[in-house]
Amino acid sequence: MGIIGRRIALTGLVFGMSLVPEAALGQVPPDSIRPDSAAMDTLRIRPEGSDSLQVGPGEADTLSAEDTIFYNLPDVGSGLPAGWGQGVWHWDREALQVAAATTLGELLDEVPGVVPLLGGDYGTPEYVTAFAADVGRIRVFRDGFELLPMDGGVTNLTHIGLAGIEEVTLDRQPGGIVIHLSSLRHHDARPASEIEVGTGELDTNIFRGTFLDPSALGGSVAVALDRSDTRGDGSGESGSRTGTWLRYQRHWGDDFGVALDYRSLRSETAVSDFMSGASRSDWVVRVRKRVLSAVVGEVFRGNTTLDVKDEREAYLGVGGSRSQTGASLSASLDAGVWGRATYRRLGGDDLPSGRMDLEGGVTLPWLGGVAAEWHRGDWPTITTTNHRLRAWTRPVAGLSLFASRDEGWEGGRMGPAMLAEIPEVADTLTGEPDPPADPAAFFRMTHREATRAGGRFSWRGVDLSGAVLDLRAGEVFPLGIAADVAGEEITRVARTGWEVWGRVPVPVMPGLNLVGSLQQWDEEAVYLPRQIYRGAFQYHRTFLETGNFELWWTVGVRGRDPMLLPTTTEAIDSTTASTVVVHTRVPFHQSWYGRIQARIMTLRIFVAWENFTRRDALHDFPGRVQPRMRAVYGIRWSMWN
Fold it and tell me: I want to staple 171 with a disulfide (CB 3.0 to 4.6 A). Which of 90, 178, 247, 301 is the partner?
């Protein structure tokens, strides 16, 4: 039949299922994806334990008592609720499956106002930013363990895989963004597997496999493999990503446990502008105990290593190892009060010796909520502090209000050419070591004040939100990525803007919504296009009385105005020789995409198109063009073993 024939047949099959009359599919229950939060327009939230691998009717009575017992580490609580007003987006396990993102960057690109920075195809660097967040203001955590930047001023998401991840939360604020990843938990006493395989144009291949056993080796075991590869769009563009996750947990009931996690992800690319190969590995040991009914304590110790395979001179100092030791205390009360305190010790001269994070809040159904944060970093020559306060009201006649305020200093590593320790270089004439380098040369400090305030109106399925934005940064530093490694700080960035988001049902077709967002600034800035927009038609319905057939499809567009990136060059005239900051502008970016997914019991069939209008010159880094078009199709299957 041939590859092209198989693709056409599968595409036709899925499209055909979307056109089947409702009467032929039986009774159609009401649309179940209407979320309470405007921020979760594409994300379906299910109660814990109600995922697609739950015990079906008639099965429970066939399981022995031993087969129904399973444990997890004590839950630390969810903390700040998700919502447009809070500036928090959340994907649970079901939503991650619906999104069908291959990488973390692809997933976060769904969020309004997020700016992806992609080096090209698989294996090249991948970053995200928002509100021109720079070094120290883009933080990534997995199960409370901070995934520190290892080859730049911010964490390279190419080395952060989605295999074995159950939940993703993005806290997007004008003062900075935080990404939280949560590993899979056990929801049943039976071993379970999930397999995702896909293929498509540009010789694209995708595999993701996960296995969970809640009662193995005297505890519980989890294993995941993640692989994606492509030849790219053009010569010398091939690349791949290969990841592994291993976890062993020892439980003493649900109130005490020890976990050992190991994750590794290797990237390879033939693109000469980037490292040809690098492997990041993170391991962490966590001991977690429920101290009181609503209080959980944890201590952890871990290490991160980046092993660079590229032997070119530009990458000789990149990589190394960073240690991390910490403790946290979390509280979550039924009254809607929550809090968390974490202190961590970090190893490496380009990192703070210690970091304290305090956060807490209260949510009252009859009033609204308020949340506060305070962060401190103990750097070798300075101490930084910053704080954030946000509040929101409950809806009255469909209208609710919200506001947030950020202010303070943050620090981050200067760029990719970092060593684990500050070197002492021997003088070539005397043989005596040179004086140690100034520790301040290895990190940068940034100050920022930012405000976001607005409202949300919901009525009969119509959801509209808007906010005004004010951003004042004393300086914006380059992120220390491949495009701006030689860059210098841009001082006195002051911008005002606004953003809107909306979801409107399409009356002629139940289950269909028009969803869109726009973020507009008075002027462009570094990493901050003047306009960022999203728009899509999204469809979702559940069919049959059993709910065993579910269908999603999306057709949408993502775009932004031209964007400034900082670089430097040496300008030499007749009288002086000086280094000046040059703003490189990458062009207008617009990509149309499509998604179709059908679930039949626990089997999902998906087809995805990126940039199906085949628009040329899509790039976020100067000269690094992304693939013109890619179609990927495959299956995702959850099963009991």
Answer: 178
